[in-house]
Design a protein that fits this description.
Length: about 950
Amino acid sequence: MESPTESVVVCSICGRPLDGKRVCLACLVRTGLDEPSEQGGPLAGSLVFGDFEVARHEDGSFWELGRGAMGVTYLALDKVLNRRVALKVIEATPVVNGAQAMRERFLREARAAAALRHPNVAGVFHFAASTESNRCYYAMELVEGETLEARVRRDGPLDVELALEIAIQVTRALLAAASHGLVHRDLKPGNIMLTSDEAAQLEVKVIDFGLAKATADAAGEMELTHGGFVGTPTFASPEQFKRGPIDARSDIYSLGATLWYALTGLVPCPGRTIDEIRDCQRRAALPVKQLVERKIPARVIKLLRSTLAVDPAQRPASARELMKALEFCRAKLARGGGIRSFRKLTVLIAVLAIGAASFFALRLARQASSHVGAVPQKSIAVLPFLDLSQTKDQEYFCDGMSEEILEALAKVEGLRVVARTSSFSFKGKSVDVGEVRKKLNVENVLEGSLRREGNRVRITTQLINVRNGFQVWSETYEREVQGVFALEDEITRAVVDALKLKLAIELPVREQRNTEAYDLYLQGLYFSNKGSEKDLREGLTFFQRALEKDPKLSRAWTGIAKIWFYLADVYVKPLEAYPASRAAASKAIELDDKDAEAHCYLGEAKRILDWDLPGEETELERALQLDPNSAPVHFFLALLPLFRGEVKEGLELVLKAEQLDPVSPIISYVATAAYLADNQLDDAIVEGQRTQQLDPHYFYLDSALAAAYREKGNFAEAISLYTKAQEETQFPSSGLAITYARMGRQIEARKILDQLVQERRTRYVSAQVIAAIYVAFGEKDEAFRWLELAATEHSGILQWIAFLPEFRPLRPDKRFPNLLRRIGVPNDSSVSITETSLSEIKDQNAQHLTLRIGVKPRLNTQNGHVVRLAVSFYDLTKDNKLKPTDARTAYDWLTRDRDWTDPSPKFLAATYVRPKTQIASPEGRRYGGFAVHVYFDGQLQDARAMPPELLTLFPAPDQVVVPSIPTSSSPH
């Protein structure tokens, strides 16, 4: 074996260790300058560049501060001014147009850099280029500290506050550079010096502006380095790899990559060669999961995505624009991640403020615990098997085997099995079991590899305890393909035995199946888990071909039901797709009644085609018995109480499904919608941001996060996100139209509406989507006309109108409960406002108003529930602005016997009194409007306001409202 010393490569001149070259860069420079050296040992003599002498270490070697592609930076002494400097020496290698051209270029750029004076820029003191020795060098301010690269390598990723402070100070340097027409072109962690560990005391210096050049000279000039490229590839912008123009946006890209590195310790576009890096920039999505795992705020992630846009036009246009974005992120971070508190004057302002704060804190704690809880000891994630076949064409077979084993383990009593979506999120990655435990909240991982050669398969599997990294069990199997059914069951039993569990139902002995049919089934399964219409239809073809070989292969029928379900409402009209899904699910159940997934699709067909919610619930309960670990079952079950107005129960079920499938975007999306339905806007925003972090490109039924921003009154964030959804889906955004309508931007809203109507002429677009825009316009007749059309078409998302906030304005209309009843949603399941009539009482000394409010109880309500009512008055100031009132208000129940189990309406009187002397005061407040919100067990049921825009201007209070009326027969 070769000894370590024999494998070390050293410089042939000075004897120092190298990484593959024969001569080190320092010796190349000295050779060009005819500097003395000692062969094979420490350097001898002096290394002098004009007035600057390079310092030495105690061992006699020259004191290097750093190395790069452009040259070596030394610690040196300015012999004239007797000060220490950083001296950068550029290797004197002739270029295409000759050394003279290089020197002229260097001097021009160095003069521009020397003119730059700023606290965040290391100043350039002196520069020179010698014709005799072909040497170029410049002396810079010596910054005491360490580079950002060294800090991250030593201590790991920085916290967000410190990283933002560094980015802000670097941006100040870029602002100064812009005023001189300079572009750095090699901005990276190694060129950023830090002088302190604390953000409050930190001073940042950007070094090496010697590579910058005037913006006016950006195109068509010869570069200092070889091959026309200046910069460090992993931090360079895409345009730097070309010979096109370079401007400030290139530095913004590099700063974005640098900030990413500071937060993660990784680069966003890695690669071993320039071609690999360029390919990564062009083709690969940014690895946002690196930021999510570090719990980087969504606002910072959004900023990084913009700075790292491949198209310069998509980045911040200038350092000034970037500075605003960075400071905004820092300000939001200082205020607690952008969660804004709000205060509203209601019946008892103190109770509202204290109660809202405590409820929100409890909700955040509860939401956090739903995502990260104690790791169940009997829990497992089945990772997709690796394809080790020589031709690498067995991905479908590996995925299918993994999924089939996962399905079998899900039936094991007492074992929590993470759903496929979450387990397969690790596909194609170098897996760290600790990361799996953290993200999926499991104790065990089953992983394996598969090699298929002809008709034989070799599978190696291992069960790992991710808490300690120990291997619990492993085995290697070699089988004919015909034996894969038995092999899947054998692996399942081995895992169960290793975990000391028992099967809830004994796995049946599977009869020998057609091998070719099963192979086609696995290929269909592979494509059914993709999202495009092309992939889904290709999967459908494979399933149909499998059934031609084996008509009794029940799982192929389930696959067909699944594909038609996912084609419906998006690519195919509901009345064409759902009947096909129901027929296939029924056939699958006929062949195998224990197929939980088939019961799910049959239940959904009953809900949509028959408007039969009880029928769906029966199917889902059966599926839950068969597969208690099924995230889809819990997901579909969660929608049922949401349809019935039981939002809290629905939210709990959604969060339970999220525990089973923690990285599923669709489940997180519905959780956001459920929070919105419960009027928990801050929680909806937090969950919606989580959806975006899981998959920045996921937009189902538009963006639920954007809807949360809109309901919160944050129109700018809503528009930004809706616009992104519209660009990525290439489909007009109804949510954007609704937002524009709420803002009074009718022309823009109408334009999107016209686009959607036009789309319906060439493809299926749910009429409900168009109806929602008419609701925002206040055109209820048109809204109901389109909803009736959606009911005729049996839109699969129509029943969502029962809880989506866009349709709240329709709730008081008699047509709304009639429509809900027609589509199978009970219309007696909510408390509603029946009357809000305002009258004025004659009073010579005051403006005196009385508001009469009628409330219809929820039918069939049992004792133990709570109805709450919130009444808010608002004032109009002299400048016609609406504000929460500071007038005297009072409340009195007109209905003395308030038995809420009795369906008869109850009435409340609210009074508003303002002395006329206050109306005549400088501020001149007077009555401006009212808003009424009614809740059942903390869930918003109905709302009225006059003027209506008050519901948007002042979001509803979080369930802490008064008076509180328990649903008992005793007077309250």
